[in-house]
Amino acid sequence: MAALLDSPRWLGVLMIAPAVLYIVLVVGLPFVLAILYAFSGVTMGSRTIEFVGFKNFISVLETTKFQTSLRNTFVFALIAQVLVMVLGTVLAMALLKDFRGKWLVRLLILLPWVAPISLGTIGWLWILDSTYSVINWTLEALGLIGADGWFMWLGVPYLAMGSVITIHVWRILPLATVILLAGLTSIPHDIHDAAQVDGASFWRHLFQITLPLIRPIMLVAGLFGLVFAFTDMIVIFVLTRGGPYDTTQVLASLAFFTGIQAGDLAEGAAIALFLFPLLLAVAVAFLRVARRAEVT
Predict the structure, then answer these.
(1) Which of 155, 165, 227, 229 is the most buried (most CB within 10 A)?
(2) How sure is the predictor about 87, in pLDDT bands with cuts at 50, 70 and 90?
(3) What is the residue-averaged pLDDT of the chain?
(4) Which of left, alpha, beta for 252 (phi over 0: left; psi -120 to 50: alpha)?
């Protein structure tokens, strides 16, 4: 063992082995099992696996619920990610400045990411409750709505989608802020000083200096955000369970309801795997653009 630790070649292998083992067990095996299920007719009550080819994928594509969920997935992910990137950039630039109480602001921003998402979403479920909503109560106290004009935040399609997008942004925003803040702090102060001496305005400084320099970091943050948005279902599961009338149903939640609750593991796996080629292509494109930005 001592000889292995003294060897640079085997020491590197031993150091990376736990991470590789973790990826294989937590990601690799479930992924292989999902592929196996997607091309079979397995259900919760099956004792054997019968291969059926692309039957599950064809069956899923023909359903209205899948088409609605696919559209909702893109609406949910793209709108949420645009808001996350804009708000994350604003917060990161604000936190870059020195001001009194900065530590408290950082703590409050990080709380949504540190707290368990299920507990946080349950809190939002109470806040958006149709009968006891603190938002509706506040609006009524301010005279903006009447007693009979309370909003059904989770009962009206567009309000329900807006609610789940808002809470997803609330959850992911701390991660994007931290990543972008790291990118902003990596910019040499000499560049900012030179721009100030040249008389660059705030907006010119932002769009011609700051944003181009942190573009690789923004792409990485955007990639993480898109992956989270496409694959996460906790917010929708706790708040709406895909309702009302499947208007907030996304592919991740549809795969869970089909494969686990309905017992059709084969179709659930097919739904879960549908976005894998797309996400892989998006990841490769993002990383290539980030790489080019770093080189230039």
Answers:
(1) 229
(2) very high
(3) 83
(4) alpha
- Written as six digits, the tokens of 5 are 């630790």
Task: Indicate the SS3 state at residue 43.
Answer: coil
Q: Which of 250, 276, 207, 220 is nearest to 79 (CA)?
A: 250
**Torsion sign (Cα): 111, 115, 121, 122:** negative
Cα distance between residue 199 and residue 217, in whole Å: 27
Q: Following DSSP, what letter does each residue of 190-255 receive, concatenated? A: HHHHHHHHTT--HHHHIIIIIHHHTHHHHHHHHHHHHHHHHH--HHHHHHTTT-STTTT--HHHHH
Supply 59's token pair: 């069956």
Do residues 95 and 105 touch, judged by C-beta distance below 8 A?
yes
> What's the first-to-final CA gap in the chain, in angstroms?
45
CA-CA distance, 105 to 287, in Å (whole number)? Answer: 32
Domain spans, the chain: 68-253+272-295
Q: What is the dihedral of CA 59, 269, 124, 26, to 10 degrees?
A: -170
pLDDT-derived band at 4 (thresholds 50, 70, 90) equals: low
Distances from the Cα of 219 to the Cα of 135, 145, 230, angstroms: 35, 41, 16
Does the 68-253+272-295 domain belong in CATH 1.10.3720.10?
Answer: yes
> Which amino acid is it at 85?
M
Mean pLDDT of the 267-281 span: 84
Residues contacting 280, CB < 8 A, separation 6+: none
Please name the residue ranges forming H helices in 24-115: 29-38, 55-61, 64-95, 102-114
pLDDT of residue 6: 62
Average pLDDT over residues 175-199: 82
